[in-house]
Specification:
Blueprint lengths: L1 H29 L2 H8 L1 H4 L10 H11 L4 E6 L7 E7 L2 E7 L6 E6 L3 H11 L3 H26 L13 H31 L1 H11 L23 H11 L4 E6 L7 E7 L10 E6 L5 E5 L6 H13 L6 H30 L9 E5 L2 E4 L5
Antiparallel strand pairs: 1-2, 1-5, 2-3, 3-4, 5-6, 6-7, 7-8, 9-10
Length: about 375
């Protein structure tokens, strides 16, 4: 039984090793997603606060003049010292335009998507679309098996320390087992929440049904209202959103998709760890009427399940401490994958004389009985 589990544990690790390195590595980096893109473009991503913010409608007019034929797809708003990032679909390709929120001046533009955008797609789908997403979800399930089988294989030795002054082989052996023991439960949590997050659109109706919660949606259509203006000014839309959730800041604005679309204003409370926050307001594009609200603080239980699931996955429950824990957990996936590959490679290269079926020599003075560890 033990030998069979050891073989399956080994073969699964070998088959998934490259993908685990990508998922673990991007997971480590995405912990810094909140500020990564602005760090990268720090010369245009930050401003000196002064006075009151400029009119958003005037800013849109400036963007239309600067990018004729372009289509606004998103506005990302940061803190008081952050520029507004306007994402524009232009004939020459996607553009990220940095705008001073106080003066409305365009500070600079960057072609293509941000670094975090590519990291997210590598993490979620290995940059391979739906087939890649399915593969990532399968590997997440396998990670749960690897963690549980690793604990089973770890049990006889119960090695939780790393002997730093020992041989490289012993150090690698100890590190693999110690990292596996301390991270196994957290890896299982991240793997399960990652799968739930990936299938949230399919699972949300189920969560709503079992909790008897009303369904929430952003896809609320706008209809012209007699006597209203052709389109409500963006400043009016944002003012309505702020009045609805006074304790939250505007984090992201998505324009209407077509004549029946609505403005979606994403709102962020101080405790939110995600870039756009977990609350949103849907606003009629014609008269500024509020069509729908999701307040993350008062959302129904079915919606809270998916909100909290995502927060757990990204380490956003208690701020910096849980983000550090998420980073260390993703790092543990890298460590175990690399140390496991090293152990397999050394065993593969071992001479027949060293392939003793009773023991694995770690150093001249150290021996661990075969089968007592991974």
């Amino acid at each position: 039984m033990r030998k069979s589990i050891l073989k399956v544990h080994l073969y699964v690790a070998l088959a998934a090793s490259v993908f685990l390195l990508v998922i673990g590595g991007t997971g480590c980096l995405l912990v810094f997603e909140l500020s990564m893109d602005r760090w990268w473009d720090s010369s245009v991503a930050f401003v000196e606060p002064h006075g009151d913010p400029a009119s958003l409608d005037a800013m849109l007019a400036t963007l239309r003049t600067a990018f004729p034929g372009g289509k606004l797809t998103e506005l990302d708003l940061g803190g008081p010292d952050a520029s507004i990032i306007a994402k524009i679909s232009a004939p020459s390709g996607p553009q990220r335009v940095f705008v001073n929120p106080y003066s409305g001046e365009i500070l600079g533009a960057r072609a293509g998507e941000s670094i975090s955008f590519h990291l997210r797609h590598a993490h979620r789908e290995l940059l391979a679309g739906k087939p890649g997403a399915l593969l990532v979800n399968c590997i997440s399930v396998l990670l749960v098996f690897q963690s549980l089988s690793g604990l089973y294989l770890w049990w006889p030795l119960k090695r939780v320390t790393v002997k730093v002054g020992a041989s490289w082989r012993r150090f690698n052996f100890d590190l693999h087992h110690a990292a596996g023991f301390f991270s196994s439960a957290f890896i299982c949590v991240l793997a399960v929440t990652g799968v739930v997050k990936a299938y949230t659109p399919d699972l949300q109706p189920f969560f709503d049904r079992i909790t008897n919660s009303p369904s929430m949606t952003r896809a609320l259509p706008s209809k012209p209202v007699a006597g209203s203006a052709l389109h409500a000014p963006l400043d009016t839309v944002v003012a309505a959103a702020r009045a609805k959730l006074p304790g939250a800041m505007v984090a992201r604005i998505q324009p209407p998709a077509g004549k029946d679309g609505s403005w979606v204003v994403s709102m962020k409370y101080p405790e939110d760890s995600t870039v756009p926050g977990r609350s949103y307001i849907v606003v009629n594009q014609y008269n500024g009427e509020i069509l729908g609200v999701q307040d993350s603080r008062t959302a129904p239980l079915g919606t809270q399940i998916t909100i909290q699931n995502r927060a757990i996955h990204v380490g956003g429950i208690y701020g910096a401490p849980t983000r550090i824990l998420a980073f260390l957990t993703a790092l543990a996936v890298l460590v175990q994958t690399l140390t496991g590959l090293q152990m397999w490679w050394r065993k593969r290269k071992a001479t027949p004389a060293r392939r003793d079926h009773s023991s694995i020599a770690l150093s001249p003075a150290e021996t661990v009985t075969r089968g007592s560890g991974k």
